[in-house]
Amino acid sequence: MLESKRLILKPPSLALQPAVLAAIRESKAELEQFLLWVPYALTEKQSIDDIKKAIENFNRFEHELRYFIVEKDTCELIGAIGLLIKDENQGYFELGYWLKTSATGQGFITEAVYRLEKHAFEQLNAKCIEIKAAETNVKSQAVALRCGYQYRATLPSDSQLPSGELNNTIVYTKTCL
């Protein structure tokens, strides 16, 4: 568990599954614009299976270290943030995140990014953390810039949005706190 001023970042747990499913369902319209996994996370079975896989990955330090974002004051689950393990030996990670719609615009993701990157650089020996965002996802790009990530590249037609449309991917990196 990781803590910041207003947030607790909790490792994946089946106890959080109902709140995770409710948050995804609440925010389906916004999340499905950019995240391909949303249609596969809308039933209780899918949600349970996904969290079981996240627990396995977390415990084995494989693929992704996912944390669920909980607001301290309300104990409400408001989103998720994770480190994709790109190359453990080189200390290379990719950071991804989502918030439920009702929690956006309050600086929660910025705070969560700062806390998780601190953990990555100080405890996981990260040398480089990337944030990738669809060119049309200006909110995610704003988070990267607000958190001090540097623009590195635009990858033309690199990703397909859930709508089927090709989109450029914008890559931001950070190599130290």
Automatic annotation (TrEMBL):
Transmembrane regions: none
Signal peptide positions (record): none
UniProt feature coiled coil, ranges: none
Protein origin, superkingdom: Bacteria
One Pfam family from the record: Acetyltransf_3
InterPro entries: Acyl_CoA_acyltransferase (IPR016181), GNAT_dom (IPR000182), Ribosomal_N-acetyltransferase (IPR051908)
Residue span, N-acetyltransferase domain: 22-177
Annotated protein name in UniProt: N-acetyltransferase
